[in-house]
Design a protein that fits this description.
Blueprint: E1 3-7, H1 12-23, E2 27-29, H2 40-50, E3 54-57, H3 65-70, H4 72-93, E4 98-102, H5 131-151, E5 155-160, E6 162-164, H6 177-190, E7 195-199, E8 205-206, E9 208-210, H7 211-223, E10 230-233, E11 239-240, H8 241-252, E12 257-261, H9 276-282, H10 290-304
Parallel strand pairs: 1-2, 1-3, 3-4, 4-5, 5-10, 6-9, 7-12
Antiparallel strand pairs: 8-11
Helix pairs in contact: 1-7, 2-4, 4-5, 6-8, 8-10
Length: 307
Amino acid sequence: MSKVLVTGGSGFLGTNLIRKLKSEGYYVLAPQSKWDLRKQDIAKKVIAGFLPDFVVHAAGSVGGIGANQKNPGRFMYENLAMGMNMIEATRIEAPKAKFVMLGTVCAYPKHTQIPFREEDLWNGYPEETNAPYGIAKKSLMKLVETYHEQYGFNGVNLVPVNMYGPHDHFELQNSHVIPAIILKFHQAMTNDDPNVTLWGTGQVSREFLYVEDCCDAIVRAIEANPGAEPINIGTGKEITIKELTETIAGLMGFDGNLLWDTTKPNGQPRRCLDTSRAKERLGFEAKTTLRDGLKETIAWFRENNNV
């Protein structure tokens, strides 16, 4: 069986991806969490020890707007360090391996024409609250491209939009928007609180990708030869945070008041991807509707949080 090394295997995406890869017949390897990939010698030992056929770099220091505001330096350094070390270690220790780099929609400029096209990645500065994280990921995608140009490095750059689904991290300080909203409604319903307060105005839009669909795109990237140019991975559909919140409230049965703290940042004004390149080069189209994905995510949360 082909060997796939997945960094960040204990994380949200990694957990789902490992299950998907195993179901597709791959032999999956995942570095232990105690192995610090920020250190170049550790990254080289991991690649030299496993000698994988494919590397999927899903490890990262991530979080929502609040976490990005508190940790700009750490997020930039750790993501750059882990990514650079894994790319270089793969080039040296397993030069025939394919490297799948997972970028982020946060790499796009703050004011990007809708829908976001891959050609626009470098046409401006990212949204300020998560710019260090976005710049780090964007730099790593460019490193994969330049290694391909200079060394013939077999790299693929995927740019997933905001993901959600089972095994996500449900906490208020570091979670992304969907798990944070689900947790807020759960806490309000548990405590008989009639009000839930959300950040911002609710008028900004986001595009959301169910994690199983993202895993499907990654498997397709492993099996295809799409080149090193960035490829957007998403649904091509956006929704305002207000509409999203109301949908989750309805699915969870919360009938209280939604309050908006406009002193908190909104983040990027809009996010919606042009996904035509993914269809052309990977044959990928997202299958899960937002409503169905939210139902599955809420059910998983309730089953795994003693609700």
